[in-house]
Amino acid sequence: MGERKGVNKYYPPDFNPEKHGSLNRYHNSHPLRERARKLSQGILVIRFEMPYNIWCDGCKNHIGMGVRYNAEKKKVGNYYTTPIYRFRMKCHLCVNYIEMQTDPANCDYVIVSGAQRKEERWDMEANEQVLTTEHEKKEKLETDAMFRLEHGEADRRTLKKALPTLSHIQEAQNAWKDDFALNSTLRRHFRPMRTSRN
After folding, report:
1. I need a surface site. Which of 26, 69, 103, 197 has the fewest CB within 10 A?
2. Higher pLDDT residue, 23 or 127?
């Protein structure tokens, strides 16, 4: 593949490296070409892939996760030191514009305007999974001894309730732990059947 890539560039006779520096400056163009046409406004055109299923507000059509758009990417703020970017793209089925932005606090994307999210989110609490501790709760656990004691008691109750299930899972895993012994047993069982057929 690499040998087919065109790496040779045509240098016109009036090109002067001291004066122009690069071919891009000679041609008065940006290395990103069309993608950088709004760079002076702080907007870069990127290829954006829809992170989840949505419903367009303009045409009421479903837009599936993974559909790609040429989106205008712009920095709109910061969450601590992480930049928050806003993406603006036109629906491929109508004239409506969809705006989304990053949500670093929840590791997600938020729809600002032009669409509605199709609700398919996984509720960790409803499915009895371990929840991550929120920032405020973590700070309170570190500073407030009474809160830490109450929180520890609630954790112990949860553990006591989940202990039978956990021990059952542990026993099931231990039964299949030694796969070499299981394989040997199966081979010993099937070997006589295979030799009798031959």
Report:
1. 197
2. 23
Distance CA 112, CA 87 (A): 9
Q: Check pLDDT > 80 for residue 64.
A: yes
- C-alpha distances in Å from residue 117, one per residue of 73, 95, 102: 20, 19, 14
Residue 54 contacts residue 115 (beta carbons within 8 Å): yes
Predicted structure pTM score: 0.55
Is the distance from CB of 45 to CB of 70 less than 8 angstroms?
yes
For 125-143, the three-class secondary structure string (H helix, E strand, C coil) is CCCCCCCCCCHHHHHHHHH
Q: By the 8 A CB rule, do 116 and 57 touch?
A: yes
Cβ contact 99:32 at 8 Å: no
- Cα–Cα distances in Å, from 20 out to 16, 17, 24, 31, 36? 6, 5, 9, 14, 20
142 neighbors 134 (Cβ within 8 angstroms): no
